[in-house]
Amino acid sequence: MMNPVTLSAATTSGAASLSGTDSMTGMLISFVPLILIFVIMWLILIRPQNKKRKEEDSMRKNAQIGDEITTIGGICGRIVGIKEDNDTLVIETGTDRAKMRIKRWAVGSVDTIHDNPIDEEKPKRKGLFGKKKDGNAAAKSSKTKEEDVL
After folding, report:
1. How far apart are CA 134 and CA 5, in angstroms?
2. HSE-up of residue 147 (Cα within 13 Å, Cβ side)
3. Residue 23 confidence (pLDDT)
4. Do residues 69 and 88 touch, judged by C-beta distance below 8 A?
5. What is the end-to-end Cα distance of the chain in Å, rounded?
6. pLDDT for the residue 93
7. In the prediction, which pLDDT does 22 show?
8. Digitized pLDDT (tens) for each residue of the chain, 150 residues in all
9. pLDDT at 112
10. Contacts of 118 by beta carbon, 8 Å cutoff, 6+ apart
11. Secondary structure, 3-state, the chain
12. Are 15 and 21 in contact (CB under 8 A)?
């Protein structure tokens, strides 16, 4: 005669071995919303912050002599010298032409607008998945088509 406790334990262990793949699938499905939340947080918070930081770094790197700047401390002045060895700028402030040395990272904004930016070129066109599109490739393909017709 079978004990009802052992009978129910045997039945549940058999059912658990059959539904092992179902429980794994259920567990993976329960992690999908969590993964989606992390992806959305990256798209909304982290990616724009990194993009802004890169723009600020390029702005500081492209500061030239004669540019009007504002430091992160609120000091306004004009760049009169750049010392590359220790990465500092010499700025001139006020009507008394007082000169100060500041670190390049302390530049909050460059207020001078340049007609031809030094470091910037034409915006690079990118295709699907970040691959660069070559404008010459389109011209080459049209030339080959013309040659095929002739």
Report:
1. 73
2. 6
3. 83
4. no
5. 95
6. 93
7. 82
8. 556 555 555 555 544 454 667 888 888 888 899 999 999 999 999 999 999 999 999 999 999 999 999 999 999 999 999 998 999 999 999 889 899 999 999 999 999 887 765 555 555 666 656 665 555 555 555 555 445 555
9. 86
10. 62, 64
11. CCCHHHHHHHHHHHHHHHCHHHHHHHHHHHHHHHHHHHHHHHHHHHHHHHHHHHHHHHHHHCCCCCCEEEECCCCEEEEEEEECCCCEEEEEECCCCEEEEEEHHHEEEECCCCCCCCCCCCCCCECHHHCECCHHHHHHHHHHHHHHHC
12. no
pLDDT at 147: 53
**Which two structure tokens, joined as six digits, stand for 58?**
């390029």
Q: Which residue has the tokens 């001078």?
A: 112
Identify the CA nearest to 57 among candidates 119, 124, 131. Answer: 119
Cα four-point dihedral sign 66, 68, 73, 75: positive
Tokens of 83: 């010392």
Domain extents for the chain? 1-62
